[in-house]
Amino acid sequence: MSHTQSPARTWAEIDISALKNNLQTARQISGQPVMAVLKASAYGHDIKKIARILDQENIAFYGVASVIEARRISTTGSNTRIYLLGPTLPDERQEIISNRWTPSISSLHEATHLDQLNKGNPPLPVHITVDTGMGRGGFLPSNLNTQLEKIRKLKNITIEGIGSHLPSADDDKTFTQSQFKTFSEIVKNTHHTFKYIHLANSAGILDYSSSITNLCRPGLMLYGISPIESYQKKLQPVMSLKSKITIIRQLPPGHGISYGRTVLLDKPTRIATIGAGYGDGYPRSVAPDKASVIIRNTRCPIIGRVTMDQIMVDVSNLPDAATGDEVELFGKNLPVTEVANNANTISWEILTRITPRVTRIYLNK
Q1: Fold that domain 239-363 belongs to in CATH
Q2: Whether 295 contacts 318, CB under 8 Å
Q3: Residue 181: which pLDDT band, with cuts at 50, 70 and 90?
Q4: Tens digit of pLDDT for each residue in 131-180?
Q5: Which listed residue (20, 39, 242, 244) is catalytic?
Q6: pLDDT score at 4
Q7: Which of the listed CATH numbers 3.20.20.10, 2.60.260.20, 3.30.365.10, 3.40.710.10 matches domain 32-234?
Q8: Is 153 part of the annotated catalytic residue set?
Q9: 39 annotated active-site
């Protein structure tokens, strides 16, 4: 006996034409090849699906956070090189070598261990990471040249590139400009020829320029969100999180709404319940007095606390609203940055916390 599968209750529409537009924007602004950052399941957009799509776009590297993510991309049959953005653990390095993934090196120990493991194979290309202010990994500029001399002598790895990271490109222009200058001086002082030199993340691409770098690393902007508000018009949001109204009820004055009864109605109110919640990734921490959703092209305020599977909204000013109506939680009409601000967090976190039970639907392939 066959069974009919119901449509999704909560889903994320992912606009592939917007993704490609944002990639082109990154290329046009930077004038450089791209390392597309696909970590955290491509910022919640599904790492395997996005890797398959971008594999036809002549990407220099896919940037990932771990061997788990590298492995997931490898299962797609992608031909794009995979770059590990952070330090690797000793028991991960044999898999890196076997798959010819490109590691970033933050210590002499990593380099020598990879060299030992790669004996008998062609030299493995690696990139040197320099800590110019991020503080989470990389060689310190003060001892970089000493360490580089030792790494150059290793026979089974080859230094292909050098990179660093910008911690404050979206909110501290003075420091970031000095960081670009410092990085440029570091690279020149190594007296080494690097095939790839990279520093700029999304904010770095949008608001800065460099004469020494020749590779950029767009992350958030690839998915259509600008870390610097003034550049948002250049980008197209890729993900729209949507759900449906499951029920509408007329509730009397004095009736409580949601856990904790933080809201007691002061007048008769038409309340719609939405079939999504923090179990889908919509943040519980949004301020109910500020947050809203869009129903029938109308903003409707969230009432009470977001629950695991449901959200209540006031549709008193929308008399035509009905059970089954589509609800936009964020997307092209309600920016994810607004949701993030209302939840006292950042867009990166909102996108990456959209859970697996949310169906991804890919449009405009």
Answers
A1: Lyase, Ornithine Decarboxylase; Chain A, domain 1 (2.40.37)
A2: yes
A3: very high
A4: 999 999 999 999 999 999 999 999 999 999 999 999 999 999 999 999 99
A5: 39
A6: 84
A7: 3.20.20.10
A8: no
A9: yes
